[in-house]
Amino acid sequence: MRKSFDGLCGIVTNQLGGDPLSDDVYVFAYRRRDRAKLLVWERTGFWLFYKRLEKTTLQLLPNPKQTPLVRNPLPTHLPRKEIVIEVKEDLTGLKKIGEENTEELECQTGQLYVNRYIRPKYALPEDKGVLT
């Protein structure tokens, strides 16, 4: 592993979905698990710690490729802006059977809020499918 600050920050952002500027400590282990690098952000810059183990190896968590990553829900205390995206077709005779919701974090002039997109679903007559 020849990566330094920028390369490890790229892994944190692009592969792990994390924020290298957070208070989290990111641990990168070599394949043989006899060496590790720790990436830590402090107010003025990054710290990169390197350790080589002489007589033992690191005990790692299960491979992240085997466990699916699930995004945590957005914080409930943030204000929500609901945006309903209606179907542009004639809805006469159709029955609403549900809706699909998507939330997206937004930042505008230093304030965080959540856009909540709502897409209603309608059943077509005679079991011909669903209109979204």
Poorly predicted runs: none
Question: How many domains, in number, for the residues?
Answer: 2
Beta-strand content bin: 35-45%
Structural class: mainly beta
Order of helices and strands: HEEEEEEE
* Relative helix content: under 10%
Instruction: Please tell me the overall pLDDT.
Output: 85
**Topology, number of strands:** 7
Q: Alpha-carbon distance between the termini?
A: 48 Å
Shape: elongated
Please tell me how large the radius of gyration is: 23 Å
| Major beta-sheet overview | 4 strands, mixed
Count of discrete alpha- or pi-helical segments spanning 4 or more residues: 1
3D architecture notes:
The protein starts with a helix and ends with a strand. With 132 residues, it is mostly beta strands. A hairpin with a 2-residue loop joins strand 2 (35-42) and strand 3. The protein has one helix at residues 5-14, and strands spanning 25-29, 35-42, 45-52, 80-84, 95-108, 111-123, 130-131.
